[in-house]
Amino acid sequence: MLDVRRLQVLHAVVASGSMTAAATNLGYTPSAVSQQIAALEKQAGVALLQRAGRGVQPTAAGRLLVEHAALISRQVAEAETALADLRAGRTGRLVIRSFATAGAALVPPALARLRHEHPGVQVHLRLVEGDGSLADVEQGRADLAIVVRPRQRTNDGIRLVHLLDDPYQAVLPRGHRLAGKRVLDLADLADEAWIGSEWPAGPCLQILLDACAAAGFSPNFVVESDDYTTAQGFVAAGLGVSLIPRTGLGGRHPGVVVRRVRRPEPIRPIHAAVREGALAEPAMTSLIQALSDSPKP
Question: Is 295 or 257 the better-scoring residue by pLDDT?
Answer without folding.
Answer: 257
